[in-house]
Write a structure and sequence with these properties.
2 copies of one chain form a homodimer. Chain A has helices spanning 7-13, 31-43, 71-81, 91-94, 112-115, 119-134, 146-158, 188-193, 196-209, 215-228, and strands at residues 2-4, 21-25, 47-51, 85-87, 102-104, 138-142, 164-168, 232-240, 253-262, 265-274. Chain A is an alpha/beta fold. Chain A folds into 2 domains: 2-168, Rossmann fold (3-Layer(aba) Sandwich); 181-274, 2-Layer Sandwich (Pantoate--beta-alanine Ligase, Chain: A,domain 2). Chain A binds chain B through residues 7, 11, 97, 99-106, 121, 124, 128-129, 132-133, 135, 154-155, 157-162, and chain B through 7, 11, 97, 99-106, 121, 124, 128-129, 132-133, 135, 154-155, 157-162. Strand 5 of chain A pairs antiparallel with strand 5 of chain B.
């Protein structure tokens, strides 16, 4: 496995690669990321993993500074997982000049976008840059960041990038908590409380699967149950999977998404659910 | 020479091309475009020319509908000029779904951007799409659309596209008028008046080359001279070539840009000028 820090060296290493499979990450890797690497290995090669904490997608007061940087441990895990290239640029490699060109995605004021202004613009921009450096045939992202996957999939399609997007299912701890680099921020009592998010999403999904269509009621009851346990809820939202907009009368393929803060830590989760025909 | 209308066929034709040279156009080709094809041929191959009148870069009330479509004549010229592939997609090929992802360029409120809201966003977006379809090694644009070249060059750099941008000098009629597809809109008396734009820009550039630094004075006198002859001036502006912003005290490499309407036709021109050290 090669560790590469510079764009020119990366391009040279991949000059003849036509089937590269790419997993962009911010590092601090856990089993969820390794699952994405496994998907990449099954589809193409070489397997390229990028590790870059992208300042463009963090807002003022967010956790850019304290986001964990664990390159040596990450490389050890990736080597064991069978990655071929780790691309770990510094900020000057990615942004040698102020980034005045950006990708403007839709749904920027929806869900996480409503609570993190500019976040998805920053995500889409850095991913486009990374795609143009790596030029992969396959790219793998986790479904835990559901809106992110939805948007990047749309970006690939609408910008005509010749990339096959692959989604990895969310990896969970045995108690159901979605694995996330940010789980490391949780104090022990918070960690014990954290799986409630997924439990409540499953309960909401169960009601939808049973045919309930009172979306607003289910959303507000779920949010209230979190608030009662000390969570600060950004949103609980039921959306149509095809559009990530509110379901219409005949939407059957839904997803329940939530973002909520437990102490100083913001947690995300979601669950897809197919609902019965009327 | 192959005429291709579909993206899939284009990708197949270019699957093994590593040195393609690309000239994006809106068709209605003139000698200026052929000069760009010549540049493309000298740098790489196959030479790919796209012909697409991009609705995304036209504002309400602009000339999208009446913009001349002359595909058969264009193909004849391109075959004679040695192009290998003409890519002429229809709107559904380029935009099979509403384009909700766009490229947001800087300087969008400057120069032509101030008078054509959304224009450069539309240009950058369609050019990024075309780049991702053609995947050229070289791309050629004319300097007559100076701000466009400046922006696309910045987009390639900031989005890390592995493309070498090549600029073609403006081709002019013997009386100095910059060749443009829109010149065909001019009535005979307007065509006789039109070269004044370039003459006045040359006069302004001459004053700068002689050491004058009263940029505002030169701009307003040039604009007044046009207005006096019946032009409706969008802008006459002296800018630093490195930034396309107003020159600072030590800017030496300048460009004088203008856009003005003669009757119903909007004409653009510019001239680069190096100014003496103080």
């Amino acid at each position: 496995m090669r560790l590469i820090h510079h764009v020119d060296e990366l391009r040279a290493a991949l000059a003849d690669a036509r089937e590269a499979a790419f997993v962009p990450t911010m590092g601090n890797l856990h089993e969820g990321h390794i699952g994405l690497v496994d998907i990449a290995r099954r589809h193409g090669g070489p397997v390229v993993v990028s590790i870059f904490v992208n300042p463009l997608q963090f807002g003022a007061g967010e956790d850019f500074e304290r986001y964990p940087r664990t390159l040596a441990a990450d490389c050890a895990r990736l080597e064991a997982a069978g990655a071929d290239i780790v691309f770990a640029p510094d900020v000057d490699q990615m942004y040698p000049e102020p980034q005045t060109f950006t990708v403007l995605p839709p749904l920027a004021d929806q869900l996480c976008g409503a609570h993190r202004p500019g976040h998805f613009q920053g995500v889409a921009t850095v991913v486009l840059k990374l795609f143009n450096m790596v030029r992969p045939r396959y790219a793998v992202f986790g479904k835990k960041d559901y809106q992110q996957f939805f948007l990047l999939d749309g970006m690939v399609r609408q910008f005509n990038l010749p990339i096959v997007m692959l989604a990895g299912e969310t990896t969970r701890a045995t108690d159901g908590l979605a694995l996330s680099s940010r789980n490391g921020y949780l104090a022990p009592d918070e960690r014990a409380e954290a799986p409630r998010l997924y439990r409540l999403l499953r309960a909401a999904a169960g009601r939808l699967a049973a045919g309930e269509r009172d979306f607003t009621g289910i959303e507000s009851e779920t949010a209230t149950a979190l608030t009662a346990r000390g969570w600060r809820v950004d949103y609980v939202s039921i959306r149509a999977r095809a559009t990530l907009l509110a379901p219409t009368g005949d939407s059957r393929e839904l997803v329940v998404l939530a973002a909520a803060h437990l102490g100083a830590t913001r947690l995300l989760d979601n669950i897809e659910v197919d609902t019965p025909a009327p």
